[in-house]
Design brief:
There is one protein chain. This protein is an all-alpha fold. The chain has a domain of about 50 residues. The chain is about 70% helix and about 0% strand. It is built from 2 helices and no strands. Helix 1 runs antiparallel to helix 2. The longest helix is centred in the middle third of the chain and has 29 residues. The two termini are about 35 Å apart.
Length: about 80
């Protein structure tokens, strides 16, 4: 059997440094809510009162936003 003629894959053009920098800056800005949530978690969990559900929801939203920031940073340095 012979190998079929497969055209070579086109080479990818490198991403602009400006786009990479913008993605990095946006990702770092999106990390801020998660960092703030991590700073305030010990203050709320050390009290004897249970943590209100609204604060828990704010923490979850903050961590989701930070996960998007991490994804942007990873995407900025891939390719």
């Amino acid at each position: 059997m012979s190998v079929p003629n497969v055209p070579p894959t086109p080479s990818r053009q490198p991403r602009s440094a400006v786009v990479t920098a913008l993605l990095l800056i946006a990702g770092l800005l999106l990390l801020a809510p998660g960092v703030c949530a991590l700073i305030f978690i010990p203050e709320y969990t050390s009290s004897p009162n249970p943590v209100p559900s609204s604060i828990m929801q704010a923490w979850i939203i903050s961590f989701i936003i930070s996960a998007v920031g991490v994804a942007l940073i990873v995407y900025a340095f891939r390719t």
